[in-house]
Amino acid sequence: MIPDRTLAFTAVAAGLIAAPGADFAAVARNAIADRRAGVCTGLGVATGSLVHTAAAVAGVAAVFVAHRSLFTALQVAGGVYLLYLGARSLLTFMRDRVDPAAEKTAARGPAAAFRQGFLVNVTNPKAPVLFLSLLPQFVPPDADPLTRSLVLSLIVVGCALLWFPAVALAVHSVGALLGGRPVRRTLALLTSLLLLGLGVRMLLFG
């Protein structure tokens, strides 16, 4: 039987991963133009979550919490990267008004899409703090902390592996089902603006 703590952690982890944010926006943006690129972006996001949870288990995340300058540097890097993605997506959207073929050029190759998802997730400064504070709450006093934390980390990564590729498939299917290019353009604009907004928010408010 699965312990109650494990079930509770799974529910919390699934809720946090499913919450709309930079990861969701990056996956959706690539999925609009190309289904495979969206799935690969989702896999990159899941890999980034593996880095964060592994860092929390190893205690590396504690360093970022204790040293504000490192945390700030990661925050700036993450915000700038989101602004870059949002601006690039918006430029592609504008070019598509003149040249419809530009929509397909926005679809990234598998490796580039994977890298994009990974960087969006791994440069999120809130993730290490979140996992560092979350994991210990679900480690029973009589359990081995390292083993238990590793199990919880795998649950987080498993949820991400299920959720983000599913988001990519769903977004791509909705775009095709509801009218093709007009719907894809609307979704592309919304996700571009969302990336820009998240980048500004990260830089200004953390």
Automatic annotation (TrEMBL):
InterPro entries listed in its UniProt record: LeuE-type
One Pfam family recorded for the sequence: LysE
Cell membrane found in the keyword field: yes
Keywords: Cell membrane, Membrane, Signal, Transmembrane, Transmembrane helix
Signal peptide: 1-25
Subcellular location(s) of the protein: Cell membrane
Keyword Transit peptide recorded: no
Top-rank taxon: Bacteria
Membrane-spanning residues: 41-63, 70-87, 150-174, 186-204
Protein topology in the membrane: Multi-pass membrane protein
Protein name: LysE family translocator
Organism: Actinoallomurus oryzae
Upper taxonomic lineage: Bacteria, Bacillati, Actinomycetota, Actinomycetes, Streptosporangiales
